[in-house]
Amino acid sequence: xxxxxxxxxxxxxxxxxxxxxxxxxxxxxxxxxxxxxxxxxxxxxxxxxxxxxxxxxxxxxxxxxxxxxxxxxxxxxxxxxxxxxxxxxx
Length: 90
Description:
Layout: H1 2-12, H2 31-45, H3 47-57, H4 61-65, H5 67-71
């Protein structure tokens, strides 16, 4: 359930993981592992995201369903062609 919260967060705020390479997570001392831990700590301390993290911890499906409101904020329009998109695959 934690992964669901993180997924929605990244969908809304992709810049939060810019330059993040998931393959580095397997090494506990890596920059990626530290970045992920810091992101999670900040989300947990947030009044907004913290409630979803605690809902996931408590397996509170009703609380997690409130994330539907967040997802409806996503725009279904395609990106403009003149806007460069960096997906971090250098």
